[in-house]
Amino acid sequence: MPVRLSCTRLAAIRSATGISTRRDRLYADNRSILAQGRCHLIATGDIFLSYAHTDQAMARVVVEALRATGAGVWWDQDIPLGANWQQELERQLGQCSVFLLLLGGPGVSGWVGGEVGVALDRHYRRGEKSPLPIVPVLLGKAEPSAIPPFLSQFQYYQLGDGRDPAAIAGLIRALGENLLFGYRKPPVATSPERCPFPGLACYGEDRRAFFLGRYTDIHRALELFSTPEHGAPRRWLRIEGNSGLGKSSLLHAGLLPALKDGWVELGNADCRLQLLGSLRPGQMPLAELARLVARAFRLHSEDLERRFRDPDFSLAHLFAEHLPEEQRRLPLLAIDQFEELFTLGGDHAGERARFDQLLAEAIEDDRYPLYLITTLRSDFLGQFERVPRLNSLRSQAARYELLPVGEAGLNDIVRHGAELAGVTFSDDDLAGEIIREALHEPGALPLVNNLLRLLWEEGHGQGKLQRARYRDLGGLGGALARSADDLLNRLGDQRGNGLRLLLNLVQPGINTPHARRTISRARALDCVGGDAVIIDHLSGHAAARKREDEAARLLMISPAGNRNPEDSEAHADDQIDLIHETLLRRRPDGEPYWPTLWRAIEETDFLEERTRLEQQAAAWRKNPADIALARGRELRRFMAHRPGATEEVTQYLDACAVKNRRHRRNGWIIAAVCLLVLSVLTETVYWLWDHNPGELSLRESLQRVTVHWRHILGIPARPTLVDVPDMPDGSRCFQMGTPGEPFSFEYPAHRVCVPPLQMSAHEITFAQYDAYSADVGKEWPDAEWGRGDQPIIRVSWLDAVDYADWLGEQTGRSCNLPTEAEWEYAGRAGTTTNYSWGDEIGSNNANCWNCGSQWDRQQTTPVATFAPNPWGLFDMHGNVWEWVQDCWHDNYQGAPVDGSAWGQKADDCGVRALRGGSWNGYPDYLRAAYRSRANIDRRDLNLGFRVACRPLTAE
Questions:
Q1: How far is the CA of 437 from the CAs of 5, 410, 418, 861, 939, in angstroms?
Q2: Virtual CA dihedral for 27, 33, 37, 41, nearest 10 degrees?
Q3: 393: burial class by Cβ within 10 Å (0-12, 13-18, 19+)?
Q4: CA torsion angle for 840, 843, 844, 847 (degrees, to 10)?
Q5: The model's pTM
Q6: Are 935 and 911 in contact (CB under 8 A)?
Q7: What is the pLDDT of residues 904-942, one digit of tens each?
Q8: Where are the strands (E) in 337-420, listed by range?
Q9: What b/e readout covers 211-220, taking b as 16+ CB neighbours within 10 angstroms?
C-alpha cells in the first residue's frame, strides 16, 4: 500500500517555481489608503490564499474583504472551467508576492500541505532578494498550538469566525504594515520559559518549536520518502550525512513530529501510519527493538524478545495481532544512529543478523508493511554489507543526504533563535561573526547551539548576548572545551572516575573516526565505583536542581524497557552515552574540539586494551579454548576493565581467573613432570648407547626408542582380533578350492568345516612386530617403505611362527598362523566368488598389478587402506603374501576336511603355502582360492602374515 506525502499532488510545483520569477513589489503610493484601514495590491495574484476545503466559507469571506480594498487575491475558485488546474496552481504559486494560510480545524494536510511546502521552498531558497512572506491566519477557535512547528517562526493573525468587521480590518492593516513596506519577521512578544538552544544534545520533540534552519530539509525528505519509485512504494527513508550535521535533531524534532501532525497520509484516506517510536540499536539491537515494540503495543518486552529470536517469527505476525486490518494502520519505526550496529562490539548471539532479517522481511511484507526511517553517518556507508538483507533493499529506499545547514540556515538559527529566546546581541556584528565562524566548521550545529546556550545562560537576564563572553569562551571550539572541562573539573577528587566513564563511552575507530558507544546505567555505575552522583553530575541532573534551566551536560540518559521517558527515577537498564560525537571530533585545522578527552585517549592504551579484551572475549565465547584465555600480566591489566564490563567480558575474565588458579595449583606438577622428562631423556640416551648399532638413521632410532618406551610403560602394540563368524546356514563349512581345474593346485574342490577362531583384522604391522622384537631382543627387519602401519615384510615362515607363539604368551591364548582352510574360509567371508566383492577385480579394491590403486606394483600400502570384506577383515586380497601353517601340496588330494593344517611341524617340510597375493602380483593371484608357496626361510619384500587365535581352553 503506497504512502504519499500530502504535497505529492503538487510535486511538479517545485520544479515550476524554479523557473518562475517572483514579483516582489512595494506599494508606497497606498499609504493614504492604509490610514483608512484599506490597502491596494495592484496585480491579481499578489496574495495566494491557501485553505482547507472545510474552511471554504471563511476563505470566501477573506477573499471578498481583501478584494474590497483593491488587493489582488488569487484562490482556487479563480481557475476557469476547462483550464489545467495543476498548471494554474504552479503558475500562481510561482509568482505570488504573499502566501496567506488559513488554519482552521483540519490543520496543515492534503492540498494545503503541498502548497505550504512550495511556499517554504520559496521562503528559504538561496539567491532570493527577499524571502516570500508567509502569514498564518487562525480561524474560529483555533489556538496558536494549531500552527505546525515549521511555521512557528512566522507571526500569525487571530481572525476568529470572521463576523467581526474589526478583525477583518485588522488583518488588512497587518498585511499592509508588514508586507507593503518590506517584509520583516516580528519579534517574539514574550521570552520562552527555557533556553531554546539544546547545547550539545540533539533537539527533541519538546523543542520542536525552536528547531530552526531545517524546514526545507523536513519537507524534501518526507516528499522523497513518499514519492513512489517506478510505481512501487518507498518504505524506507535513509537520512545520511557527516557527523555534527544534526541528523538526530532532524529525526526527533522535524520528521517524527511532522508525521504525527499528518504530513504523510496514505493513498487510501482511511489508512494512517502508526508511529512505533524511535530506538538506537546499541549492543543488543534485538532487545532494543523488543523493548520499543513492547511499549507501543503494551506487551512484555522479555517475552517479545524470545519471540523475535524464533527464526519462524516475523513482525507481520505481530502487526496482524495488534493492528487489525479494518483499522488501516501501518507501522512506522525510526532507528537513530544506525551505525551502532557496526561499532558496538561483535554480533552478540546473532542479534545483528536476526535484527537484519526481521526488518527486511517486515519492509517487504505486503499486508502489514513496515515503514522505516534511519539515520546513519556517511563514513559507515561501506559497512552496510554486514546487514545483507537490508543491504539488498538499499536501492529501493529513499535516500536523503543531509548537507551542512548553510549561511541562510545558520542565520535563522542564530538570529531568529535569539528572537525566540527573547534576547538580542550586544552589537550588530556578533551574530554575523558567529555565523561566519560556523561556516568553516563541517558539523556546526552542535557547536553553535552549545555556544548560544552558554551565551544565553549568562546574558538572558539582561536580555543581551555579550561579545565579552563570546571572546572569553574562545569561539565555537573554545566554548565546547570550556563547558566540558568545567563540568568535569567540578567533580573534584572524582574527576578521574568521571574521565574513566567517558572513556568507556568511546568506541575507537579503525581507519574510521572514533564513535560513541552506549552502555547501561548498571555498567556506568561499575565504572565510577557505584557513585551515582558522578553520573547525575555529568548528565546535568545534579546542577539542574539548582536552577530552573537545564544544566550543561556530557552524558545523555535514555530510558529502557517500558518505562515512561518522563519518569525521573533511575533504572539499571537505562542507556547512557556521550551527548554528541563532536566531543570526539577534530576541528578543520586538525586540533581536537575537546583536548582533554583526546589526551586521555592518546596518552593511555585504555581504549586499545579494552577493544582487545572485548575481541578476545567474543572469540572465546565462540570457541572456549584455553588458548584464548589471558594469563599473568595481561590478565592483571585486563582486570582493570572489569568495572563496567559486559556480561560476556565478565564471564571471560572469570574463566581466565579460574585458569590461572589452576596453573598456580599445578605448579608443582609441572616441576615433577620436568624431572620425569629429564629421567626419560637420561634413560633413552643410555638405552640408545647400548642398543643402537650406529648405522641406523635418526628416524629409525626414534622409532626404536618409541617401541622401547611403549614396552616399558606396558602399552601393547597388539593386533586387533576379529571373530570369524558362521556361515548364513549356521554351519562353519564351505567349498574349498575351485572346480574345473583352472590351476591343478586348486583341485579338487572339497567341503571343509573349520573350528571357531579369531583372526587379526589386518596383516601384522611393523609397529606390532617391532614391539615383539624389542621384547625378545630380536633383530628388527629392514623397512623399505616405512614402519608404523605398513605391513611387516622380509619375515620368514619361522619368524611368523615365533611371533604367533609370543603373542599367545602375551594374551593368554593359543595363537599361530591360520591354516589354509581357515584362511580361505575367512577370505571368502561367506561368498563363492573369486573375490569377496565379486568375480572381477574392479578398481581400487586392493593393491596389486593393475588393481587400479595409486600403489599398484610400487610398494605396500598401510593396512586397512581399502574397504574390509563382509566379515571385517582387511587386505585378504593383495598387499603382501601371507604365510599359513600348511606344508605345500600340489593339489588337495587327501587334504584334511576338518580345517586343520596339512603338516604342522617345522621339520615336516621346507616349503610352506602362501595365500592372498601381493602388491606386485597379477589380479588372478588375489583370488580367494589361489595358492602359492615359498621356502620357510625366505624373506622378501612381498612376504608378510596375519595370525589366528583361540582360547586355551578350546584346545
A1: 36, 11, 17, 83, 99
A2: -40
A3: middle
A4: 60
A5: 0.54
A6: yes
A7: 655 678 899 999 999 999 999 999 999 999 999 999 999
A8: 371-377, 398-401
A9: bbbbbbbbbb
Q: Please give the C-alpha separations between residue 140 and each of 54, 59, 168, 425, 490, in angstroms, as whole numbers.
A: 12, 12, 13, 38, 53
For the stretch 150-202, pLDDT in tens is 676 677 888 887 777 788 887 877 776 655 433 334 334 334 556 778 887 78
Distances (CA, A) of 128 to 115, 131, 892: 19, 6, 120
Element (H, E) at 71: none
For residue 577, what are the β-bridge partners?
Answer: 556
Cβ–Cβ under 8 Å, residues 254 and 217 = yes
- The answer for residues whose C-beta is within 8 angstroms of residue 75's C-beta and 6 or more apart is 48, 49, 51, 59, 63
Contact 470, 430 (CB under 8 A): yes
Cell of 149: 512547528
CA distance 140 to 901: 124
| C-alpha triplet 598, 600, 603: angle, nearest 5° | 100
Question: Residues 243, 249, 250, 251: is their CA dihedral positive or negative?
Answer: positive
**CB-based contacts of 218, cutoff 8 Å, min separation 6:** 150, 250, 254, 255, 258
Q: Which of 270, 301, 296, 269 is nearest to 284 (CA)?
A: 301
User: Using CA atoms, how far apart are residues 142 and 156, in angstroms rounded to an integer?
Assistant: 12
Q: What are the Cα distances from residue 418, in Å, to 106, 463, 723?
A: 31, 10, 100
* Whole-angstrom distance, CA of residue 835 vs CA of residue 842: 10
Enter the DSSP assignment of 80: P
